[in-house]
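Sample intake — Down syndrome cell adhesion molecule-like protein Dscam2
Collected from: Portunus trituberculatus
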Amino acid sequence: MSPPANIDDLARDQDTEALVGGGLRRASRDLGLSHYPHTETAPQFRYTPIDQTVSPGAPVSLKCSAVGSPPPVITWTRDQQPLPPSHRTSVGSFRTALGQVVSHVNLSDVTVREGGSYTCTAHNAHGAQAHSSRLNVYGPPFVRAMPNVTAVAGEDVKLWCPAGGYPVPAVSWRREGRSLPSSIRQEVLSNGTLLVRTASHEDAGRYSCVVTGRQGQTAASHTFLHVLKPPEIDTFTFRAGLEEGRRTQLSCMVTGGDLPITINWLKDGRHLQHDPDLESKQVSDFSKVLVFKRLQEHHSGTYTCEAANAAASVNHTATLKVRVSPRWVVEPGGSTALVDSTVVMDCSARGHPQPVITWMKAPGNTKRDFQPLVVDGLRSSQASNGSLILQNTKTSDAGWYLCRAANSVGKPISKAVQLTVHAPARVMTEGGRVTGHAGQVVTVTCEATGDDPLTLTWLRHHAPISPGHRATIRESEGGGVVRAVLEMHSVTAADAGPYTCRASNPHGDHSQVFDVAIIEPPTPPSNVEVSEVTSRSAVVTWRLPQPAAVTIQYKAAAEDEMWASHGRNVSVGQWAASHVLTGLSPHLTYVVRLMAHNDLGVSLPSPTQLFTTTEEAPSGAPRDVRVAAGGPRSLLVTWRAPDTRLTHGTLRGYTLALRRQNLQGHFTFITRPVIDLGGVEQYEVRGLVPASLYEVAVRAFTRAGPGPLSSPRIVDSTSHDAPSCSPAGVSCRGSGRGGVRVWWSPPSTSCVHAPVSGYTIVATPTRHVHSSGDSSAWEVNTTNLEKNLDSLPPATNISVRVKAFNEVGFSPPSRPVFCVTEDDVPGPPEGVRAVVTGPTTLLVTWSPPRPHTGTILHYTLYSSRDEQVAIRDVVGAGGSEATWRELSGLTPASRVQVWVTANTVAGEGTPSPRITAIPNPKPSYTPAAVGGGRTWHVGVGAGVTLGCRGLGSPSPTTSWMRGGVAVTSGQLMQLLPGGDLHLTAVRESNNYTCWARSSAGVDTLTHQVVALTPPAAPSLSLSHASHHALNLTITSASDGGAPILGYTVHHRGRAGEWVEVEVAPGVSGVVVRGLPCGAPHHVYLTAWNSQGASAPSPVLVANTLGSPPGRPEPERLVEVNSTCVTLRLYAWPELGCPIQSWKVELGTEDDGATWTPLHSRVTLDTTDLGVCDLASASWHLLRVTASSTAGDTTVVYRVATTDGAGGSIAAESVQEVLMSGVGGPGGWLDAHIVAGVVSALLLATAFIICVCVAVRRRRYGGYRQGDSVDEKGGSGEDDNARNSELTRAHLYSPTPTKKPRGSLASLKTQDDTSDPYEICPYATFRYHPQ
């Protein structure tokens, strides 16, 4: 069971309804809602509790947090009732620093009675929000006491059953002994609540809630439902046209509703205040009258009658408007204003209806004969409160004004006021420039207006001008205007300057300035300067002692250009002191001169000034951009410089933009210096994806920035390459006699750089097979994803690899998979012979058939006696390897013919040749050595039993010989009872002969034991190297008696991890790709067969093509000014390997120089790099390191910044230096001297190391280059043990990430003694490409 879901449901359960102005409203508890607009927010929960189920006695904590403005108040209820006080219940709340209000209920040692629905409600003045969660406590069911419920007739009502206990009990309702629901208006909801729709008086009564637990326990509680009818109010209104001073009344009659009913009057939503002119009288229980004894202005408003009973509260409202005559709010008063100002004449009145205010103006200066004032809305306007607003006041606006307020009630009111307007002094003549010629008369006129007394005064240098023989002032007046004329005779240049005419009266002052210019023959402009030079403009400034027009002449500073033919003129008016020259060309030196001219002539030219416009980024793109494939992983880009007219500066370099076509992403930028300004530039971009389309564009840049990319972007493809990974999922299985079925999946599309043309399957038997062909491997091509290989040796384990190929070459071979071909029908047994062993017995022996075609299940011996039907005798059934059988019961002196066949799962093979023998009685018979002499292929260290048994009469004795030496039982060989020889651990290949001797003769049987070993160490040599690959030549050695199944190339770079490359058998070379440019690489090779991996080849140390970055020329790399050093890192020379990044550090010349990193990784897209904020006219140290895969190159420069004027403090501002052992300025040496000293030290060190190595090698008794294991001093057992240890290391741990003790990969090279993964075999050599 759960309570209603939100606060609306709670309100719906508890509210009743009432009429509001003819409608309904809720009579619920106050939620703090306001009728006025506000900026605060209603509460919002930030944390609420969840449903919980606990056992009795457990502690429980419930928490709610909410935010709102103002901060909300949080209250708790349980089953819609306030929490009862208890020593086990505590409720608290607090407010956090972030404004959250947190409230919690802590229950200690809960009982089943504490279970129920807990509701936390957050409310403030703007709303409320509630959340409920259920606390279930294991225990029997119960029902809390239920309060009585009052409902409104005609509305739905819900009866809530506050049940508890867990598991949750079932809820049912009863009324007067009857189960509910009993009609369609009643329904029990899923949470146990009883819903009664459209409640009426017949629904009133006692309701019981009964809960039943799962074990049958029951509990019940009761409530009484009361259904009441809300009040109804008869409508009422006020009579229209009520004026102040009259009487009226208003009656409120309640026509319906259950008693008792309370009736109240409200004005404007508030209870009536004490008023002697207003009285409220209760006429009866159903009526109340409101009496107005004398209506006043303040009685206007809304009057509400509110009637309420226990069911609801209703109201009705009527509006009273009292008619009131006009009265002043702001009474008009007189005003004073100045000409051209704005004046506001106040006038405001109130009344009901609202009075209309009108303005009138009297003609002349008398206060009579007022006429309506025309308000045009421009100079005059009327405010909303009735005030008159006059703008740009004139003297004509002065006079008497009348403000009148009137409505339809009572008499209008009015008042006359006077407006006075004063005119301040004002000079009417506009000031300006007055020009006169030297020696003549200059006249300046000044006119002014304003109220009297008005005075005009001429001033120069802030002092009044006194009339004299060269200056006179004539004054006159007329038409309201005062005039003053200043005349100056025989003027000179000293009379030039500003003259001020000032007018004044009691209401203000006003003046105008006249600039008098005296024209004389001009002199050349002086102090000519050029500043604010940009790429397209420059500012020219000058000074002139007298007013004159100026002509600016400028041209390019080429020596062969004359002013008359190439100069450009710009005219500037008088009094100008500067001009902006525009339309200039970037990065061009100009010469400029100025000439002054007026009506009297032209001056001589001023001294010339030189200036150079700044550079701009190029507006043109490089031309003739072409892209060609430089290889599978490179593109060769060529281009020519932009048109010189579009470079706008000295080209400093180019930026190549590159990205794969059809791939979303940004361009990769590579910055290169200018190599050939007038010729063709080119650059090879390496490290690309084969057979891929690339968008390539080039842009040039100057010191001002980069220009546009070449357009259209050239698209070209890198050339195709062989697949870089092998086919996936290679599998195989035997298929028929001598057949294998192979299937696979294509290589990953990311590895295929051209369409795959087909696949090559390489099948190699794990043992030598005697066949007509010379090759030990089978290669078959196909275009399918599966292939059947036929004509393979039967019953043979086959190593299968698959290679993909296209028009360029082959992919690496897949890792080998192994499968066994099925058995074939065997050939005839070999060496069949028949030996007479008695008058009625015959011994038949043979050897297994060759070649091996499968496991021999048994042999069949056929014997025909005296041309009779042949008798079939099975030999070796059940897994025995018997190769002989004695026939008995023969007829003496009869002719017996015998032959033998072998049987495999494929069937019976070809019979051997037939042998004829005749048994005859003899006292003795030649002995026979039986056991099927054969060839055994055994891995070194494995055991094998060689069969041999001597038969004959008398019984022979058996013995064994190896290489002419008798064999005795020992650690490695054991003579078994019956004559067999067991080899416990085969060490070498040899022939073992079994001798059967008796007095009747001798017979022998020979077993050939071939010891199979891992291959001998192959050799590896460098064919040639490229920038990212090594072409290696493989020379194989002995295969150890079993075909070589593959090679493994192990390589690693400088202090890197070892990487293995699988190589198919039968190849003479391999290419190791994807290597860093110009870096040394250690490479060794192992071969492997069915017996394991060989010892490693001598380590080959070879470099890919390329060298570390070169040493740049300081003047190309470094540029200096007063506070910055500019580094053109892109000008750093590359020696075959691209530079990957640069590091820039700033050092000090103090003792113990320290370096501060400025840029730890500068990438290839960088153009000019600035190191700024340096002290001017001082020395600074810069250390720059260029890094590539071939190594790092570091240069140190001592750089002198210039002074503020651009002067250098040293003859060479950039000096390349190297650190010596002593810090400070004295610790810097010239690079060439230091290089020579270091070279001598290195040569001496190398000589000492060579001497030490030679002495040590004399003392070392270990392996030397070219030594075999047998040549090492010591016992042969020790040699074999060490050789076995080396072999096992590479057999079981071919990957040198973990190096077992004794493996070659665990030794260290002399050039990297700190690397635990370096290898150092017997012989190493280094290859340096030319």
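Post-analysis note: The radius of gyration is 60 Å.
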